[in-house]
Amino acid sequence: MGSVHQPNLPVIEFSVKESNSTTSSSWVTKGVEVTRALEEYGCFIATYDGVSQELHDAVFLASQQLFDLPTEVKVLNTSDTPAHGYVGQIPLIPLYEGLGIENATTTLGVERFTKLMWPSGKHSFSENVLKYTKVVAELDQMVMRMVAKSYGIEKHYDSLLASTTYLLKLIKYRSPEVSDRNLGIVPHTDKTFMSILHQNEVKGLEIKTKDGEWIEVCPSPTSFIVMAGDACMAWTNGKIEPSSHRVMMQGDADRYSLGLFTFIRDLKIETPQELVDEDHPLQYKALDHYKYLHYHASDEGMRSKFPLKSYCGV
Ligand SMILES: O=C(O)CCC(=O)C(=O)O
Ligand SMILES: [Fe+2]
C-alpha cells in the first residue's frame, strides 16, 4: 500500500444562511464547483452547519431506539414502492437493516411512521426526525438550484421541485461476527434523483471513482455526502453520472447511517431542451420515476447491467 495514491472527494462548504442569496457571485461560483464535482465524481462532500451537534446526536439516538424495537414491529413498515419499507434479514447482506419514512419532510408522513412503530406515541422521535429532514432538504434544494442555474435550466428545476418527495432511510449495519463477510451493502448506484447520506462515527461507506478506485468516506457530524441518482442522470442527459458505492464493515461497533432520498412523483422527468444539441443527442426518454423503481425491482430490471438505459434509453 504505502505510496498508493488515495484520491479525495471534493469538499464544498454550505451554510443555511446562503439559501436565499442565489444571485450573489460567490453563490454562482459555488454552483459551478458543485456541478463540476458531480460531473467528475457523481458525488461530493458537503460540510453543512444546518444540523447542530445536538440534533445530530438526537437523530442517531432516535435511530438506535428504532432499530432496538422487535422485528415484528419493524416489519409493519411496508410500502407499495420497492425498498421504501422495512428491509432486513437478507442472506446476501445479513448485516443490513433499513427502514424508510415516506413524505419525511411532512408532519403527516413522520407522525404516521412514528405511530406505526410506537402506537402509544414517541414525540421526541417525530420532532427530531422532522427537524433533521427539513434542514437537510434545504441542502438538497440549494445544491439542485445551483446545478440548475449553472446549466441554465432553473425554470425546469422549479417544476421538478414542486413534484419532489423525500424518503428518509434509517439504516443499521450490525458489526460482523467472525463467520460473517464484512460486506454491509453491495456496490450499487442509487435509483433516486438525489441522495444525501450521513453516517455516525463508524466509517464504512466507500465510493468508486471513474478510475475504479474505492475511496473511504470519513464520518464527521458536519459532513454530508451529496450523491446523484439514476433519475438525475436521465434529467441531465447523462452529464451527471451516479457513482457506485458500497459499505464495508470492520471492528465491533454497529454502524448507523441516514439517507435523505428524493423522488419525483406525478411528473415525468424530461431532459430539458437546453441540454440537447447535435453533439449531445437525447439519451433518455421521459421517465416516470416510480414506474422505474418497480422496473428496477422486477426480474428483468434486476438482470439488467444498466437498468436506466434498458428502461428508458433512446
Ligand atoms: O450506509 C450508507 O452510508 C450507504 C447507504 C446506501 O448506499 C443506500 O441506502 O443506498
Ligand atoms: Fe446507495
UniProtKB/TrEMBL annotation:
Keyword terms of this UniProt record: Iron, Metal-binding, Oxidoreductase
Keyword Lyase (UniProt): no
Annotated Fe2OG dioxygenase domain residues: 163-266
Highest taxon in the source lineage: Eukaryota
Record keyword Iron present: yes
Matching PROSITE patterns: FE2OG_OXY
GO MF terms, alphabetically ordered: metal ion binding; oxidoreductase activity, acting on paired donors, with incorporation or reduction of molecular oxygen
Protein name, per record: Fe2OG dioxygenase domain-containing protein
Origin species: Deinandra increscens subsp. villosa
